[in-house]
């Protein structure tokens, strides 16, 4: 560094000696002065004093120039150091900014990736939201279907409970009828044996009696028996109005007095045959009126009026009735509908069968059975019929083949009054 500085100073001094500075071209005056100075130097060789003064002036001038130059060099160095320092700071700032820029570019890339990921996540969330909405709709439909199924099951359970109760009642009725028939069979057999014994007694009495008169008909009283010659008091069978009667005849009354007669009961009773079976051939949906029937299969005893739907009991006794029909509902938005049939006796309901229908749209072609079976004790003249009290969009389904709705009944046993 010092070596370069001496070289620079030497160059400057040389330029000064020759009247030039580095980077400056000498002016015309400076060239003339330098030339004058040199010429003067040549002419003053004979004058040493003047030459010395001139040299001294030159040296002073050189010293001043060197001092100024040193000052300028020092200033230039300071400025150079300042600019170098600024350049280094600038370089550091440039490097820092470059790093910042690279970081920002990296963050920008990461932000773009994050934005892209968020867009994908947003799309996934939208799809998930749509899927959840669809799932909620499906759950709502499933819940509605479950409610419908629950209502169906409740209706079915109620129908099954009702059917079970009806079957239990029918079973009890069948057991009662069976027991009654067994008792009736036993009683009939006992009566038959008793009748056979009485017939044998009558035959024996007839052979021992003094038969003197023939009245030309079956004896209908103790008086008739007396007319044909019976004189021994006892039990006899006589012909009543519609059946054979067992009577006690007391032939000990005085002559001319009527024979004492006591009714014991009936023997060999033949119940009047009562049986009917009617059918429908048309749909029916009226309410609170007896159901009429278009076809009569049998009506023994003439007790059933098919046109009015009413049965009139001809005699006092126990009757059995059975009704079977198919019910159908028209299409409707109603969640629950009902249809029933009721068995009436003299205007009072005695039995019911009911159908509850759920979701008529889904089951618009579905038919369900309605069944009634019961035994009733009727007086002569009592009236029995079947009618609907609840319709609610339903009707009895039938067609021309009459295989859907039937009503039948028959006399199980005629009740016979006995007296002693």
From TrEMBL:
Q: Does the keyword Nucleotide-binding feature in the UniProt annotation? A: no
UniProt-listed InterPro entries? C1q_dom, Cerebellin_Synaptic_Org, Tumour_necrosis_fac-like_dom
Give one Pfam family: C1q
Task: Please tell me whether the keyword Secreted is annotated for this protein.
Answer: yes
Alphabetized UniProt keyword annotations: Coiled coil, Secreted, Signal
Q: Would you say which domain of life the source belongs to?
A: Eukaryota
Principal localisation: secreted
Q: Which residues form a coiled coil?
A: 104-142
Gene3D superfamilies, alphabetized: 2.60.120.40
Subcellular location(s): the record lists:
Secreted
The residue range of the signal peptide is 1-19
Task: Name all C1q domain ranges.
Answer: 269-418
- What is the protein name for this chain? C1q domain-containing protein
Write the lineage as a comma-separated list: Eukaryota, Metazoa, Ecdysozoa, Arthropoda, Crustacea
């Amino acid at each position: 560094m010092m070596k370069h500085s001496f070289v620079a100073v030497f160059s400057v001094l040389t330029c000064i000696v020759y009247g030039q500075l580095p980077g400056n071209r000498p002016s015309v005056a400076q060239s003339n002065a330098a030339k004058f100075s040199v010429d003067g130097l040549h002419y003053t060789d004979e004058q040493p004093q003047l030459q010395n003064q001139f040299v001294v002036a030159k040296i002073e001038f050189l010293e001043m120039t060197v001092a100024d130059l040193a000052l300028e060099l020092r200033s230039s160095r300071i400025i150079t150091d300042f600019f170098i320092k600024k350049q280094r700071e600038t370089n550091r700032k440039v490097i820092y900014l470059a790093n910042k820029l690279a970081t920002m570019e990296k963050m920008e890339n990461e932000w773009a990736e994050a934005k892209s990921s968020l867009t994908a996540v947003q799309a996934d969330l939208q799809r998930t939201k749509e899927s959840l909405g669809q799932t909620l709709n499906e759950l709502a439909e499933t819940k509605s279907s479950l409610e419908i199924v629950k209502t169906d099951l409740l209706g079915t359970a109620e129908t099954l409970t009702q059917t079970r109760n009806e079957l239990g009642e029918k079973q009890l009725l069948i057991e009662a009828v069976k027991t009654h028939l067994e008792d009736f069979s036993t009683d009939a057999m006992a009566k038959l044996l008793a009748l056979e014994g009485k017939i044998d007694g009558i035959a024996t009495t007839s052979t021992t009696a003094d038969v003197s008169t023939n009245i030309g008909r079956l004896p209908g009283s103790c008086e008739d028996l007396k007319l044909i010659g019976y004189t021994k008091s006892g039990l006899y069978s006589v012909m009543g109005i519609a059946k054979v009667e067992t009577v006690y005849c007391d032939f000990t009354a005085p002559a001319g007095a009527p024979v004492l007669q006591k009714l014991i009961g009936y023997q060999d009773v033949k119940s009047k045959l009562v049986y009917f079976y009617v059918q429908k051939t048309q749909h029916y949906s009226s309410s609170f009126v007896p159901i009429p029937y278009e076809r009569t299969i049998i009506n023994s005893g003439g007790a059933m009026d098919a046109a009015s739907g009413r049965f009139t009991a001809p005699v006092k006794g126990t009757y059995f009735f059975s009704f079977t029909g198919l019910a159908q509902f028209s299409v409707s938005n109603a969640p629950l509908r009902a249809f029933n049939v009721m068995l009436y006796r003299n205007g009072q309901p005695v039995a019911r069968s009911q159908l509850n229908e759920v979701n008529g749209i889904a089951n618009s072609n579905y038919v369900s059975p309605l069944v009634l079976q019961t035994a009733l004790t009727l007086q002569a003249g009592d009236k029995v019929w079947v009618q609907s009290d609840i319709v609610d969009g339903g009707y009895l389904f039938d067609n021309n083949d009459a295989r859907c709705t039937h009503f039948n009944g028959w006399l199980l046993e005629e009740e016979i009054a006995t007296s002693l």
